[in-house]
Amino acid sequence: MHYERFAPSPTGKLHLGHAFSSLLVYNSTKKNNGKFLLRIEDLDFQRCRREFEESIFEDLNWLGIKWDKKPIRQSQRFNLYTDAIKTLWKKGVAYKCECTRKDISKAFQNFDENQSLSPDIYPGTCRPKSINHDNFSVRLDIRKAIELIDSKDLFFFNKSEINTPFEKINVSPETLIKDFGDVVIARKDIKTSYHIAVVVDDSAQKISQVTRGYDLFKSTFFHVLLQKLLNFKTPKYMHHKILYDDDGKKLSKRIGSTSLETFRNSGAKKEDLVKLLNLNQNVWS
Ligand SMILES: [Zn+2]
After folding, report:
1. What pTM did the predictor assign?
2. pLDDT per residue over 192-206, tens digit each?
3. Cα 60 to ligand 1 centre (Å)
4. Given this model, what pLDDT does residue 206 score?
5. Ligand 1 center to residue 182 CA distance, Å?
6. Helix or strand or coil: residue 174?
7. How many angstroms does the Cα of residue 102 sit away from the middle of ligand 1?
């Protein structure tokens, strides 16, 4: 069975970029005679609100999207994420980190300039430490993790449009070390992370194709590594183009792009939206 998911975060109103993405997922699901699943990614309890969750349901209803099972909510699945992190501990690829943001930027100032790490890569300060208090995050020791996996198994199939063929993308260990480093897999506050929750839920929901924006293309490299470490199947991926505002900025809630609600309330119809988003060429036939 072909399963896809739409996984919004209830941190604000959905905008036209979300409409584009959700319709692509829906069209792709229909084309493959699959099921459309809805997942509410509400891990960040400081930013997520129930009222935004309600407006997600309303917006999807207006778009004519019907989900095939009861939506799942990540905030109710922390035990699954904890289990996955325990598995990584058992494999010896996790360690505690007590650094604050300030500590990390300070470590960089003292860092050997010859090292080819980019400034947002954690320099590994806490790797050798033994930490005996509760205020820590958990990081993946990326080098140790890679050692456990046959590099031939690090790849995924990807495409950018519904009607184009998949191509194989290799995930090189060097890229993982250079572009990701020892990524946080459990934050101090929520004891899990976006990366862990996504791979756990994609596996639990038996997602066979992940359709999402190209802005997450690079994250997929790290997700493939996590899937291998956790013995999960790697789904196929469609990373679609990102819609841009007239001024060239990515559509997002932060820059106040048109919300779908505003669009709806202006009296526009779904057909107007499909035309506006140039979705016709992506619609299943
Ligand atoms: Zn640290």
Report:
1. 0.90
2. 999 999 999 999 999
3. 41
4. 97
5. 10
6. helix
7. 11
Contact between residue 17 and residue 209 where contact means Cβ atoms under 8 Å apart:
no
Q: How far apart are CA 241 and CA 57, in angstroms?
A: 24
CA of 111 relative to ligand 1 center, distance in Å? 14
Distance (angstroms) between ligand 1 centre and the Cα of 96 equals 7
Token pair, residue 197, equals 């929750």
pLDDT tens digits, residue range 219-229?
Answer: 999 999 999 99
Residues of the chain with CATH 3.40.50.620: 1-76+243-285
**Res 285: pLDDT:** 32
For the chain, list residues with pLDDT below 50: 114, 253-256, 283-285
- Alpha-carbon span 166 to 160, nearest angstrom: 8
CA–centroid distance, 98 to ligand 1, in Å, is 5
**What's the pLDDT tens digit per position in 130-172?**
999 999 999 999 999 999 999 999 999 999 998 899 999 999 9
Residue type (1 letter), 190 = I
The contacts of residue 153 (CB under 8 Å, 6+ apart) are 228
Q: Measured in angstroms, how far is the CA atom of residue 125 from the centroid of ligand 1?
A: 5
- What CATH number does the domain located at 1-76+243-285 have? 3.40.50.620
* Spacing, Cα 210 to ligand 1 middle (Å): 32
- Sequence-ordered list of residues with C-beta below 8 angstroms from that of 123, at least 6 positions apart, any chain: 104, 107, 108, 111, 117
Backbone torsions φ then ψ of 107, nearest 5 degrees: -60, -35
Q: Tell me, in angstroms, the distance from the centre of ligand 1 to residue 184's CA.
A: 10
- What distance in angstroms lies between residue 177's CA and the mean position of ligand 1's atoms? 17
Q: Which CATH architecture has domain 82-200+216-228?
A: 3-Layer(aba) Sandwich (3.40)
Q: Are strands 137-140 and 184-186 parallel, antiparallel or unpaired?
A: antiparallel
